[in-house]
């Protein structure tokens, strides 16, 4: 029987999950030299009943017997064995993750002769941040059009985002190109990215600046964009004498 105090001391690898998207919980099946995997058992939180098991007694891992719990979560789990992976990493795949899947999973690997190994995986749901708020230099929210700005002068915009887990990256983009990804944390749950353009040029007129709040690469960013209005200087001045 595995000591629960010992298991709780095993560091947990964090796997971020997006609701409705599949998640893979890794487990190392590499056996000590001269030994083989006997059983693989997956548990969730403090439950002593396996959520999923792999029985390789008397057979190769590729021919192991699979068993999953018959509850709703168990029906969405299956074991993925990467036979070509030199590190022998396998994974419990949870399809179409829901909020109730969040928790600490434990992979217990039993060998024929060697001591049992335990791996813990903390499946954590992503909490999206609020939709970005774009403010001008006077603290007024910009809804669709920023400005007007004078050609040749500077421009200030700030993007405000609250919430989100993990802490989102807040960045500014111009016409699809990253221009600023340096933000500041006002508090543990409030982030601001301040955009400064030293000289407004005429080519900015009618273009878009977009603020994106991005939690992890696999999750789509939450964004807000505004177009830029610029008052242009005359291109040419011509003095015409009266006839």
UniProtKB/TrEMBL annotation:
User: In which domain of life is the source organism classified?
Assistant: Eukaryota
Q: Which locations, inside or outside the cell, does it occupy?
A: Membrane
A Pfam family of the record is V-set
Q: Which Gene3D superfamilies match?
A: Immunoglobulins (2.60.40.10)
Q: Which SUPFAM superfamilies does the entry mention?
A: Immunoglobulin (SSF48726)
List the membrane topology term(s).
Single-pass membrane protein
UniProt keyword annotations, A-Z: Disulfide bond, Membrane, Transmembrane, Transmembrane helix
Q: Which InterPro entries match?
A: CD80_C2-set, Ig-like_dom, Ig-like_dom_sf, Ig-like_fold, Ig_sub, Ig_V-set
Primary localisation category: membrane
A single GO cellular-component term on record: membrane
Q: Which residues form the Ig-like domain?
A: 4-124, 132-227
Q: What is this protein called?
A: Ig-like domain-containing protein
């Amino acid at each position: 029987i595995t000591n629960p105090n010992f298991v709780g001391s095993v560091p947990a690898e964090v796997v971020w999950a997006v609701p409705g998207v599949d998640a893979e919980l890794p487990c190392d099946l590499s056996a000590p030299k001269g030994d083989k995997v006997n059983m693989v058992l997956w548990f969730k939180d403090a439950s002593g009943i396996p959520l999923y098991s792999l029985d390789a007694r008397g057979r190769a891992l590729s021919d192991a017997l699979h068993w999953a719990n018959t509850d709703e979560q168990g029906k969405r789990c299956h074991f993925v064995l990467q036979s070509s992976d030199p590190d022998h990493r396998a994974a419990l795949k949870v399809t179409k993750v829901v909020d109730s899947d969040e928790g600490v999973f434990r992979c217990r690997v039993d060998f024929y002769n060697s001591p049992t190994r335990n791996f813990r995986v903390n499946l954590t749901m992503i909490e999206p941040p609020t939709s970005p708020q774009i403010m001008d230099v006077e603290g007024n929210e910009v809804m669709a059009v920023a400005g007007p700005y004078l050609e040749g002068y500077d421009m200030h915009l700030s993007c405000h985002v609250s919430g989100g887990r993990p802490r989102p990256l807040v960045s500014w983009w111009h016409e699809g190109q990253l221009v600023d990804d340096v933000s500041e944390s006002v508090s543990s749950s409030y982030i601001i990215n301040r955009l400064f353009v030293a000289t407004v040029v005429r080519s900015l007129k009618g273009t878009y600046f977009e603020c994106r709040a991005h939690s992890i690469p696999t999750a789509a960013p939450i964004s807000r964009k505004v177009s830029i209005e610029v008052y242009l200087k005359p291109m040419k001045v011509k003095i015409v004498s009266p006839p």
